[in-house]
Design brief:
The complex is a heterodimer of chains A (221) and B (800). Chain A has 221 residues and is mainly β. In chain A, 8% of the residues lie in helices and 42% in strands. In chain A, the strands form five sheets. Chain A has a five-stranded mixed β-sheet with strand order 6-12-11-8-9, with no helix packed on it. In chain A, strands 13-2-15-16 form a four-stranded antiparallel β-sheet, with no helix packed on it. The radius of gyration of chain A is 19 Å and the shape is globular. The N and C termini of chain A lie far apart (53 Å). By secondary structure, chain B is α/β, with parallel strands linked by helices. Chain B is rod-shaped and about 210 Å long. Chain B has an eight-stranded mixed β-barrel with strand order 18-19-21-22-23-24-25-26, surrounded by four helices. Chain B has five domains: 77-173, PAS domain (Beta-Lactamase), CATH 3.30.450; 182-276; 326-363, no CATH class; 367-524, Alpha-Beta Plaits; 538-789, Alpha-Beta Barrel (TIM Barrel). Classes of the chains: A mainly beta (221), B alpha/beta (800). The interface between A and B is medium-sized, with 17 and 16 residues.
């Protein structure tokens, strides 16, 4: 993506927002596992077919906190061209890094807010790790489209006021077996449409590295 | 079988029995001990094997953990992860090479999340090929790590798969460590047991085929290993099995590790039983050795014990042999206080007793038990010896036979015991006179003693006087004084006889002669011999006389004064001896009585009298005949029945017969006489008391007798004319008898004066030579024809 396109994308977004009451549709999404339970922390995106014609989004700023040796939130969805700050709320230092192709970076040992922000300028999944704490795994989903939602456990996810038009609906989850591309569902939204989309995903067991509670270990000091 | 166990000696028996017993006990002990030890050893071996197996597991586990740790540390390296994340192939490969060196891994390769091999060290396989162990990778995904044993190019490897985190797994690092002989020997050093790895194919076509992959055994034994397992059914899994390997038994622990569906690795940890049981074998040998030692010692002890037992037995056996041969001189003593000592003591006692008893038997053979005097055998022996000496020295000897008078009677009256006491006392008295150092005093029989005097007759007579003197004082018996008399007969060597038997016989003869003549002492006289022979033959002749009818009955008539008729006659027996002629009754009746022959004579007489009475009856003469019976006759069983039978046989009325019994005969056995006489009286036979006045009988007794007649003894009648005392007796007897309703017969009437006197006194019958002497029946009848007194003739008897 080109930063020059951003104002244009922005204008388009505004237009869309503007016309939400008149030329908007609603999409209700449910992402279920094989047993029919709603899956949380899945990222659903609606990518307009004419995404490239949309103005580039404005640069934004977001944070991914580190609290009690965990990334918070551990799944963060941002639009491309977002600056992420990694403030350290712990009293120890972290070494945040990512080897993900969407963004490789390394913030060597730091504490507090003295780590520089990282610009996520490519869509894709950025898996965050801490070189000191192996179990600290966070994910930033960098979305190309401004239309995205993170599912919650109890309710279906609703896209309100999507501008009329053609979309590719996709879902991503960190443990899903299939690729994100394969979940693509094209929809055509007319005014006041209320479309429902369902996905049924097979998830592999969550990869989890056990926490080494060093502090607890030495608590008797 | 029995014979087999019969031993020729007790010692062998004891040793054998002990031996067998000990052997069995030892054997049992050893068996039990062996079972316990073996079981224990096997349990121990199994335990140690299990421990070793656990140790192996632990070592393997630790090894895997260490490997995993190393692998984890390796993949935690940021630079390494960065290199992988950047997919810098060359860097990745060189890193792997470097790390595999660090880990001493035999193989190391890297796979991506799609299980494609990205890079490898020292791995000749194709790149980009799939990792061969999807299951392991899966496991690693789930658990963060996976360790296992895998087969790569027919080699077993310990493999560790860990994720490379970026921070999610971006790749998988597999580190493999080869399992070969060398690596196994390292483990063997740790667990001290041999172990082997086998590959077992599970596929259908090669089911159960085993392939040895690695072993701690030396190379040359490898070929036996598979063979040893071939007999084990591995499908029925057992934790431990016994294996035979190269002639050695092993206890093996089996462990199966699944490699994949078709392959399993079999780990065999084995322990040589021989090696493990070595201490047991030593223990067994020790036990056996100790057992053998105990057995030998016990045998030796048992031998000693047996000897201890049998030695005195042998000694006693020898002694018994000697005792059997009559040698009692050996002193029997074992100097022991146990049973053997007791036995020896008993032997000694037995020997003493036998000795004593033998002496006693000798004594009994030669001596009399009652008086302790030598017996007849001894006496005869001594006499024979003395005769020989006397012959040589030309000396004389005297044999004296002493017999107690009426001893039989004394014995009957006083009882046998007192009789013995009497004899004993007599012997004691005799001993006081006889010097037993020179002379011999012996008891010859019941009441007979003998003395052998080494002197002449003159001195012997003096000795006899002394003997009679000591005998002639009362002997106190049971508070009674008994005075005994003896008869002594003497014979002299060489005057009367020259041999032992003759001397004794002649002394005896003299003794009998003395006894018969109521003399206390007589010296043998050749005339005795003749008398004695007479005496001996008399019995034979009496017997013959009865059979040959040498006896005849004489009858002496009795005059019935009241009628002047000869109404009665007394039957008197006479013996007409074919050579000697008429033998008077006084010469054979007492002898017959003495020899228990009188009853035969009496019965003969009764028979004869009845026959003649019948003849008298037949010719019409009524003459009451009286028969004399002896005291012995009253003891004939059923005497009255016999008489009754004879009476009826000869058809003689009972009242024509009178039985005359002497007063003394009645008094001898008064009670029996009463019974018998009453029975006779009942059959009608009259009874008469003969010789009245001589028997000192009480008149009170007479009263109780069923008498009809009383005969006054001729001794009173004979002198009654001159002797007033006799006259008084006759007259008072007559009065008394008449008062008692008895007829009185006076015997011994020899003249008319006496006859007249008796008539005047009222006597009923007269008998005597004045009337008629006894005559045979025919002559009596002849006499009657010419006599002034006539018979009581009922019919015509003119033919007489």
């Amino acid at each position: 993506m080109n930063l020059k396109n951003l104002p244009c994308f922005y204008i388009l977004g505004l237009l869309a927002l503007h016309s939400q009451n008149t030329l908007a549709a609603q999409v209700t999404v449910s992402v279920e596992d094989n047993e029919g339970h709603l899956i949380e922390n899945a990222v659903v995106t609606a990518t307009p077919l004419n995404l490239n014609s949309l103005p580039k989004p404005k640069v934004k700023k977001e944070i991914v906190d580190q609290i009690d040796k965990e990334f918070f939130p551990f799944i963060k969805v941002v639009q491309v061209n977002t600056w992420i700050n990694f403030p350290n709320n712990d009293d120890i230092r972290h070494h945040v890094y990512s080897f993900s192709p969407a963004k490789r970076f390394e913030l060597p040992l730091y504490s507090g807010t003295n780590a520089p922000p990282v610009l996520l300028d490519h869509p894709g999944v950025v898996v965050l790790g801490c070189n000191i704490h192996d179990w600290m795994i966070g994910t930033i989903y960098v979305s190309a489209t401004p239309y995205f939602e993170k599912t919650v456990a109890n309710n279906k996810t609703v896209f309100k006021d999507l501008p009329v038009g053609d979309y590719i609906m996709k879902v991503w989850h960190s443990n899903m077996l299939v690729s994100e591309e394969s979940t693509s569902k094209p929809i055509k939204l007319g005014a006041k449409d209320n479309v429902t989309i369902e996905w049924r995903l097979t998830l592999k067991p969550e990869f989890k590295i056990p926490r080494q509670s060093i502090s607890t270990r030495f608590s008797f000091y | 079988m029995r014979k087999f166990f019969q031993f020729r000696s007790i010692q062998t028996h004891i040793i054998f029995s002990f031996g067998v017993l000990l052997f069995v006990i030892q054997l049992l002990l050893m068996l039990i001990l062996n079972i316990i030890l073996s079981n224990n050893a096997k349990v121990e071996i199994e335990k140690s094997l299990n421990l070793s197996a656990q140790l192996f597991d632990y070592i393997s586990d630790e090894h895997s953990k260490t490997l995993a740790q190393h692998a984890k540390i390796l993949v935690a390296d940021f630079a390494f992860r960065q290199a992988i994340a950047t997919e810098d192939q060359k860097t990745i490969v060189s890193t792997l090479d470097n790390y595999s060196g660090r880990l001493k891994a035999d193989l190391m390769f890297l796979a991506d999340n799609q299980q494609k091999i990205i890079a490898s060290s020292s791995y000749s396989g194709d790149e980009n090929q799939s990792l061969l162990f999807p299951d392991l990778l899966h496991l690693a995904e789930q658990q963060g790590i996976a360790t296992s044993i895998v087969l790569i190019n027919n080699q077993l490897y310990d493999i560790v798969i860990v994720p490379v985190l970026g921070p999610m797994p971006i790749a998988w690092l597999a580190s493999a460590f080869i399992i070969n002989h060398e690596s196994i020997r390292n483990i063997q050093k740790l667990i001290d047991l041999d172990l082997s790895f086998f590959l077992r194919e599970q596929s259908a076509h090669s089911k159960g085929k085993l392939k040895l992959l690695a072993s701690s055994f030396p190379m040359e034994e490898h070929r036996f290993l598979v063979d040893s397992l071939s007999n084990v059914n591995l499908d029925q899994f057992k934790k431990s099995v016994e294996l035979e390997l190269n002639n050695e038994t092993y206890l093996a622990h089996l462990k199966i590790i699944n490699i994949d569906k078709e392959l399993t690795a079999l780990v065999v940890i084995q322990q040589s039983l021989n090696k493990a049981l070595k201490p047991l074998y030593f223990l067994q040998q020790l036990v056996f050795g100790l057992g053998l030692l105990a057995f030998i010692i016990a045998l030796l002890i048992s031998k000693r014990i047996a000897k201890n037992i049998t030695l005195p037995i042998h000694t006693l056996s020898d002694i018994a042999q000697r005792l059997r041969q009559g040698d009692y001189s050996t002193k029997i003593s074992l100097n022991r206080v146990d049973e053997m000592g007791g036995l020896a003591f008993a032997f000694q006692e037995m020997a003493n007793n036998i000795k004593d008893r033998e002496a006693k038997i000798m004594m009994m053979a030669n001596f009399d038990a009652l008086t302790g005097l030598p017996n007849r055998i001894f006496f005869n022996d001594r006499l024979s010896q003395s005769i020989k000496i006397a012959y040589r020295l030309d000396k004389s000897l005297v044999v004296m036979i002493i017999n107690v008078n009426r001893f039989k009677k004394i014995n009957e009256i006083m009882g046998h015991d007192l009789g013995n006491t009497l004899l004993f006392e007599l012997a004691t008295r005799l001993k006081t006179v006889i010097n037993q150092d020179i002379d011999t005093l012996a008891r010859m029989g019941e009441d007979e003693f003998a003395v052998l005097l080494e002197t002449d007759l003159k001195q012997a007579k003096e000795t006899a006087v002394q003997l009679l003197k000591v005998i002639d004082s009362p002997i106190e018996l049971d508070n009674k004084s008994v005075l005994i008399t003896v008869s002594i007969g003497m014979s002299c060597y060489p005057d009367h006889a020259l041999d032992m038997n003759s001397l004794v016989q002649k002394a005896s003869l003299a003794m009998y002669q003395a006894k018969n003549n109521h003399k206390s002492c007589l010296v043998f006289d050749p005339t005795f011999e003749f008398l004695d022979q007479d005496h001996l033959s008399l019995m034979v002749e009496i017997r013959r006389a009865v059979i040959e009818n040498e006896f005849v009955m004489y009858y002496q008539p009795k005059l019935e004064i009241a009628t002047g008729i000869i109404s009665h006659a007394e039957a008197l027996i006479r013996w007409i001896h074919p050579i000697k002629g008429l033998v008077p009754p006084s010469e054979f009746i007492p002898f017959a009585e003495e020899n228990d022959f009188i009853e035969n004579i009496t019965l003969w007489a009764i028979d004869r009298v009845l026959v003649q009475q019948k003849q008298l009856i037949d010719v019409g003469i009524e003459l009451v005949l009286s028969i004399n019976i002896s005291s012995h006759d009253l003891l004939i069983p059923d005497f009255s029945t016999i008489i009754a039978d004879l009476l009826s046989r000869y058809q003689v009325p009972a009242q024509l017969i009178i039985l005359e019994v002497t007063e003394s005969a009645i008094m001898t056995n008064l009670d029996e006489a009463l019974i018998v006489l009453n029975e006779i009286y009942k059959i009608g036979v009259q009874l008469s008391v003969d010789d009245f006045g001589t028997g000192y009988s009480s008149l009170a007794y007479l009263k109780r007798l069923p008498l009809s007649e009383l005969k006054i003894d001729q001794s009173f009648v004979f002198n009654m004319q001159n002797n007033h005392f006799d006259y008084l007796i006759v007259s008072s007897t007559l009065e008394l008898a008449h008062n008692m309703n008895l007829k009185v017969v006076a015997e011994g009437v020899e003249n008319s004066a006496t006859s007249e006197l008796l008539k005047s006194l009222g006597c009923d019958f007269l008998q005597g030579y004045y009337i008629c002497r006894p005559l045979p029946l025919e002559l009596l009848l002849e006499w009657a024809k010419e006599s002034i007194w006539s018979l009581n003739i009922k019919r015509d008897v003119n033919e007489y």
